[in-house]
Design brief:
Blueprint: H1 2-11, E1 18-22, H2 30-35, E2 39-44, H3 47-57, E3 63-67, E4 80-86, H4 94-104, E5 105-116, H5 121-132, H6 138-143, H7 147-157, E6 158-165, H8 172-175, H9 181-195, E7 203-210
Parallel strand pairs: 1-2, 1-4, 2-3, 4-5
Antiparallel strand pairs: 5-7, 6-7
Helix pairs in contact: 4-7
Length: about 210
Amino acid sequence: SPYDFYFTLLKRQGAESRVLEIGAGMGENTELLLDLGFDVVATDFSPKSVKVMNKRFSKLGRFSAQVGDMERLPFNDESFDVVCSAGSLSYGDNAVVMNEIYRVLKLGGVMIAVDSLNNSPIYRFNRYVHFLRGDRSKSTLIRMPSISLIEEYTERFGQAEIKFFGAITWVFPLLSKILSEQAVTKLSNWIDAKFNIKGSAFKFVMMLVKK
């Protein structure tokens, strides 16, 4: 559901928009951006990932990929209509990344992101366990987006649309003992749509407009 909503927001943007995707990885979400008709520039810190993306998408036209640090985006001010991020905000210093996104967006430009939320104590504990296992770095653990970070983005940009997802994800193991997976998912989606709960949400999607 959060990724569906993420692409729903992207579909609202003009088909001729120039879009910067930060932390694009190996292009897991890039092809869908190209399908929407955008002029896509994808960046990632890993040269290997950029090489894979260029091999996958360069023949599609209106696409380029380059190595880029989201804390020092290699682009001029006000270069893009849209900046998007799918799960990558914790890979850089929060304040620096926010200001870099703001800088490269045109006036009236849009930033759209889907990411994990780090407010629930249950999810924070789970992520800490993964850190102890070596599955997550300490820096991403510290920089995982929170409600306070979302509020900072909202204040910086001036206009925001935010939706939260997975408010009852933490009780899935219990619910799955009495309900089918389909029923649990349906219940979760209904609660998210009805109440838009922040504190226990697992994911969020935000759209910000540079005013």
